[in-house]
Amino acid sequence: MSNFSKLKDLVMSLEGDFEKFYDKQNSAAGTRVRKGMQELKNMAQEIRTEVQNKKNDAAPAAGAAGAGAKKAAPAAGAAKKAAPAKKK
Q1: Alpha carbon distance 46, 1 (integer Å)
Q2: Which residues lie closer than 8 Å to 83 by C-beta, 6 or more apart?
Q3: Helix axes 2-13, 27-65, angle to 10 degrees
């Protein structure tokens, strides 16, 4: 949960700069907002990767449980259908 706290802290730290930029047209605050939004983007990507890795690591154990587990997605090649034959 510390990632969520860091995310909230980052968003809250940008509040003043958002107000300065949008309400007072302070362009330096806009630069800080852009920098903060880039940090937010990077943090979001790190969290997405972490969640996906945890999900993938837990998948074999969850699959054994059976009842509430979703079906696994078909392999990439299995999802494609053959193209229809061209008429002569």
Answers
A1: 14
A2: none
A3: 160
From first CA to last CA, the distance across the chain in angstroms is: 62
pLDDT in tens, 34-80: 999 999 999 999 999 999 999 999 876 555 555 555 555 555 555 55
Encoded amino acid at 42, one letter: N
Token look-up 């999802």 returns: 79
Which amino acid belongs to residue 73?
A
- For residues 7 and 40, is the Cβ–Cβ distance under 8 A? yes
Largest CA distance in the chain: 69
The reported pTM is: 0.62
> What is the domain partition of the chain in residue ranges?
2-58
H or E element in which residue 15 lies: helix 15-24
